[in-house]
């Protein structure tokens, strides 16, 4: 049996933090991605520009640099805002962004840009005839989105989505550098204290592979579901 | 689409945590671990060390709640300024450069800095001539970093580490010729834990004051003068009633450096 | 216009952060980043071509180890790979006494090894996909000409696969540039390392990181334009004919 020198429970906690972080960031990224995709496809030039600016900047700068900028600078920025509120409107609040929240927001923000590109491509790939058909049935705009555009779009978006998820999962490792106790952080602390880096890092690598393999399987099942009606008959 | 927008805004607001009022019935300390024996973790994650015990004793004396928030060293002053915590108690040396940013308590501990090298190293004295072409290890953003960068940065390679542990690991690996550290930390992590492998090179260093300042202090935001005064008072009490000495002996015993 | 210039000079004269020393660090950081990424990409590319061919082999003992390699390196964070190589190699018994230590002692080479192995894994998969997508007809035509396997690979399959792989490979180059930011974790003073130094010394997160973000943005655009140009030149035959 492998000797973990008492770091086992913390390593497990770290793994849970990694998974929570990844899932919450994914949710934020999908929401931001949908918003960005709509902004970029919008006829409003301001929205279009904003969407483009966001995706260009985020995709042009390393994740780690963005993370440090938002994590170290973000709180100062928020404080400037709350100080301004206090000075002008006498509203005294303090919003504390802890590392976990900062991690979720940063990763969500980064992958929102990538998701935006994925969703935009996928929305454009939806046959416009289907949307017209939905309208012809008297569906509202929202109803068309929910019942027709979204499910059809998902079929095209899934491969990109799964790809982004895999990259996102690995990006969570970077939060260890800004101080969040995810499993990489715990493993690196443990390997320094025990001087056994191989043991801990290989366990962490194995957990990542496990999550990745499990997700691959999950996405394959989803793909099957959204492919219903497009299958072999074509 | 609108619903999504509202949900996402609400979600972010919830994530960002509840708004907190600013009062001092509870004080949050920022601390950088591991920095044995000043502050470090046991394998089960418990924080311990001289600063932690002293900080808790101070809070007990003042009858306020204490919370410790772990923060990497290079972000520790920005974290204080941005109110992630209310004070820094993390072996921070009081010096002029930092006084521009934060308000310090009275010094509570005054250790020197020292050079440490492998026992078989040929370096006798740490001068720019003798360290030419060598690799020096320091912790990023510490006064030791500033001192080494300004005085040896042109002649030697300076490797900057996020934590003292990283540095010790690379020292063990043989990647560093010499490191520059707070003496108690070098003693605990190099001299004591690996007896015979390391030695102190040259003298204990406390000058020039520009870098080495006036001992360790607790750092507060400039405007929290009241809080700092409260801590100074409590510190004086602990020194008088012997609590300070108890904690001191717990970590530095009799063969200490002060 | 004059007012603008006056404004800028005023702004610059008032700053204590961007002095000769810190700009020097940023400059060296830029050189280190470019060196590290360029070397990793070139060596990775050289490794990836035979690996990609082997990945598509019918022989299991060739195919499976390569698949395993790419799966592991693509499935785990580069940071973990870097830690393993940087801290892990030290614990190989007696390594300090061999010539290998000359390479592994400085942080640059362990990082280069980690980056190279990582990019080689991704590039292998990109090329593998491109080779698999070679039109049947091209292969049949080569066979009909009596080309040997080696000649066919060299003259027909690889050149067309490279072209198809170009857009994906461009993304990989950018990905590698961004991923290289973690080199600062093992004390390398690359661009991000310089920014972290400036941040820690002057407590100025916005200045330190925004400046470095702008440099990365410029590098990204440079790569983007280079690949656009290459695509235009090399993929010209795939474009619809102009009127």
Automatic annotation (TrEMBL), chain A:
Which keywords label this protein? Amino-acid transport, Cell inner membrane, Cell membrane, Membrane, Transmembrane, Transmembrane helix, Transport
PANTHER family to which the protein is assigned, alphabetical:
CATIONIC AMINO ACID TRANSPORTER, MEMBRANE COMPONENT
Query: Which InterPro entries does this chain map to?
Result: AA_ABC_transptr_permease_3TM (IPR010065), ABC_transp_permease_HisMQ (IPR051613), MetI-like (IPR000515), MetI-like_sf (IPR035906)
Q: Which GO terms describe its cellular component?
A: ATP-binding cassette (ABC) transporter complex
Family stated for the protein in its record? Belongs to the binding-protein-dependent transport system permease family. HisMQ subfamily.
**Gene3D superfamilies in alphabetical order:** MetI-like
Q: Which residues form the ABC transmembrane type-1 domain?
A: 15-211
Protein name as it appears in the record: Histidine/lysine/arginine/ornithine ABC transporter permease HisQ
Output the NCBIfam families linked to this UniProt entry.
HEQRo_perm_3TM (TIGR01726)
Q: Name one Pfam family in it.
A: BPD_transp_1
Instruction: List GO molecular-function terms, semicolon-separated.
Output: transmembrane transporter activity
Q: How does it sit in the membrane?
A: Multi-pass membrane protein
**Does this entry carry the keyword RNA-binding?**
no
Q: Does the keyword Heme apply?
A: no
The subcellular localization recorded is:
Cell inner membrane; Cell membrane
Q: Which residues cross the membrane?
A: 15-39, 60-81, 93-114, 156-178, 198-219
| GO biological-process terms attached to the record | amino acid transport
Automatic annotation (TrEMBL), chain B:
**What terms describe the molecular function in GO for this protein?**
ligand-gated monoatomic ion channel activity
A cellular component term, taken from the record's GO annotations:
cell envelope
Looking up InterPro entries in the UniProt record yields: Iontro_rcpt_C, SBP_3_CS, Solute-binding_3/MltF_N
Domain Solute-binding protein family 3/N-terminal per the UniProt entry, residue ranges: 26-255
Q: Where is the protein situated, by its record's location annotation?
A: Cell envelope
Query: Residues in domain Ionotropic glutamate receptor C-terminal?
Result: 28-254
Presence of the UniProt keyword Signal in the record: yes
Record keywords: Signal
Q: Which residues form the signal peptide?
A: 1-21
Protein family membership:
Belongs to the bacterial solute-binding protein 3 family.
List, alphabetically, the PANTHER family matched. ARGININE-BINDING EXTRACELLULAR PROTEIN ARTP (PTHR35936:SF17), MEMBRANE-BOUND LYTIC MUREIN TRANSGLYCOSYLASE F (PTHR35936)
State the name under which the record lists this protein.
ABC transporter substrate-binding protein
| Organism encoding this protein | Litchfieldella anticariensis (strain DSM 16096 / CECT 5854 / CIP 108499 / LMG 22089 / FP35) (Halomonas anticariensis)
UniProtKB/TrEMBL annotation, chain C:
State where it is primarily located. Answer: membrane
User: Which biological process, per GO, is one annotated for this protein?
Assistant: amino acid transport
InterPro entries assigned = AA_ABC_transptr_permease_3TM (IPR010065), ArtM/GltK/GlnP/TcyL/YhdX-like (IPR043429), MetI-like (IPR000515), MetI-like_sf (IPR035906)
Does the record's keyword annotation contain Cell membrane? yes
User: In the record, what terms sit under GO molecular function?
Assistant: transmembrane transporter activity
In terms of superkingdom, the source organism counts as: Bacteria
A matching Pfam family: BPD_transp_1
User: Where does the UniProt annotation locate this protein?
Assistant: Cell inner membrane; Cell membrane
Q: Which residue ranges does UniProt annotate as crossing the membrane?
A: 33-54, 66-88, 108-127, 173-197, 209-230
Annotated ABC transmembrane type-1 domain residues: 30-227
What are its GO cellular component terms?
ATP-binding cassette (ABC) transporter complex
Per UniProt, the keywords (alphabetical) are: Amino-acid transport, Cell inner membrane, Cell membrane, Membrane, Transmembrane, Transmembrane helix, Transport
Entry annotated with the keyword Cell membrane = yes
Membrane topology designation: Multi-pass membrane protein
Q: Which SUPFAM superfamilies match?
A: MetI-like (SSF161098)
What's this protein's family per the entry?
A: Belongs to the binding-protein-dependent transport system permease family. HisMQ subfamily.
Q: What is the protein name stated in its UniProt record?
A: Arginine ABC transporter permease protein ArtM
* Annotated organism of origin: Litchfieldella anticariensis (strain DSM 16096 / CECT 5854 / CIP 108499 / LMG 22089 / FP35) (Halomonas anticariensis)
């Amino acid at each position: 049996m492998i000797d973990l020198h008492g770091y086992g429970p913390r390593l497990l906690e770290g793994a849970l933090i990694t998974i929570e972080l990844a899932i919450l960031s994914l949710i934020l990224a999908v929401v931001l991605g949908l918003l960005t995709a709509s902004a970029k496809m919008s006829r409003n030039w301001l929205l279009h520009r904003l969407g483009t600016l966001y995706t260009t900047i985020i995709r042009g700068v390393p994740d780690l640099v963005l993370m440090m900028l938002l994590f170290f600078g973000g709180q100062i920025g928020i404080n400037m805002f709350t100080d301004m509120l206090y000075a002008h409107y006498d509203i005294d609040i303090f919003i504390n962004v802890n590392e976990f929240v900062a991690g979720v927001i940063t990763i969500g923000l980064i992958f929102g840009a990538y998701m935006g590109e994925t969703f935009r491509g996928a929305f454009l790939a939806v046959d416009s005839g289907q949307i017209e058909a939905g309208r012809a049935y008297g569906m509202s705009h929202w109803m068309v989105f929910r019942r027709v555009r979204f499910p059809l779009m998902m079929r095209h978006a899934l491969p990109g989505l799964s790809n982004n998820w895999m990259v996102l999962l690995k990006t969570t490792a970077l939060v260890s550098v800004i101080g969040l106790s995810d499993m990489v952080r715990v493993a690196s602390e443990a390997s320094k204290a025990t001087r056994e880096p191989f043991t801990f890092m290989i366990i962490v690598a194995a957990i990542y592979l496990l999550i990745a393999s499990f997700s691959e399987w999950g996405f394959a099942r989803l793909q099957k579901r959204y492919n219903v009606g497009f299958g072999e008959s074509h | 689409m609108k619903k999504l927008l509202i949900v996402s805004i609400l979600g972010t607001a919830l994530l960002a945590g509840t708004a907190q009022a600013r009062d001092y019935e509870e004080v949050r300390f920022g601390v950088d671990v591991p920095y044995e024996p000043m502050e470090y973790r046991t394998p089960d994650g418990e924080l311990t060390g001289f600063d932690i015990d002293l900080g808790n004793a101070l809070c007990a004396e003042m009858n306020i709640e204490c919370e410790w928030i772990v923060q990497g060293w290079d972000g520790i002053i920005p974290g204080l300024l941005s109110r992630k915590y209310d004070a820094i108690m993390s072996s921070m040396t009081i010096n002029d450069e930092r006084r521009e940013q934060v308000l310090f308590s009275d010094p509570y501990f005054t250790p020197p800095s020292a050079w440490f090298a492998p026992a078989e190293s040929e370096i006798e004295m740490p001068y720019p001539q003798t360290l030419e072409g060598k690799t020096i290890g320091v912790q990023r953003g510490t006064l030791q970093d500033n001192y080494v960068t300004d005085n040896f940065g042109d002649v030697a390679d300076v490797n900057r580490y996020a934590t003292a542990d990283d540095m010790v690991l690379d020292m063990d690996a043989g990647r560093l010729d010499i490191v520059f550290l707070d003496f108690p930390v070098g003693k605990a992590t190099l001299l004591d834990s690996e007896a015979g492998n390391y030695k102190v090179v040259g003298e204990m260093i406390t000058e020039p004051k520009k870098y080495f300042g006036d001992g360790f202090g607790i750092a507060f935001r400039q405007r929290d003068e009241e809080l700092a005064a409260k801590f100074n008072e409590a510190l004086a009490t602990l020194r008088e009633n012997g609590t300070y000495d108890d904690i001191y002996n717990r970590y530095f015993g009799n063969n200490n450096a002060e | 216009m004059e007012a603008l210039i006056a404004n800028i000079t005023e702004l610059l004269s008032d700053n204590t952060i961007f002095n000769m020393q810190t700009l020097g660090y940023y400059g060296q950081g830029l050189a280190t980043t470019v060196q590290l990424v360029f070397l990793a990409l070139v060596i990775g590319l050289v490794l990836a071509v035979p690996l990609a061919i082997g990945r598509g082999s019918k022989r299991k003992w060739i195919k499976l180890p390569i698949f395993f390699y790419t799966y592991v390196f693509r499935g785990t964070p580069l940071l973990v790979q870097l830690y393993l190589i940087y801290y892990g190699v030290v614990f190989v018994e007696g390594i300090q006494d061999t010539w290998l230590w000359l390479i592994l002692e400085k942080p640059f080479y362990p990082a280069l090894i980690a980056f190279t192995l990582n990019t080689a894994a991704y590039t292998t998969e990109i090329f593998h996909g491109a080779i698999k997508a070679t039109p049947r007809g091209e292969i049949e035509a080569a066979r009909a000409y009596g080309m040997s396997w080696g000649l066919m690979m060299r003259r027909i399959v690889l050149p067309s696969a490279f072209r198809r792989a170009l857009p994906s490979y461009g993304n990989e180059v950018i990905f590698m540039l961004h991923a290289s930011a973690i080199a600062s974790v093992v004390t390398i003073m690359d661009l991000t390392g310089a920014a972290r130094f400036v941040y820690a010394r002057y407590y100025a997160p916005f200045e330190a990181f925004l400046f470095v973000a702008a440099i990365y943005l410029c590098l990204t655009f440079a790569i983007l334009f280079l690949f656009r140009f290459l695509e235009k030149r090399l993929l010209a035959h795939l474009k619809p004919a102009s009127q």
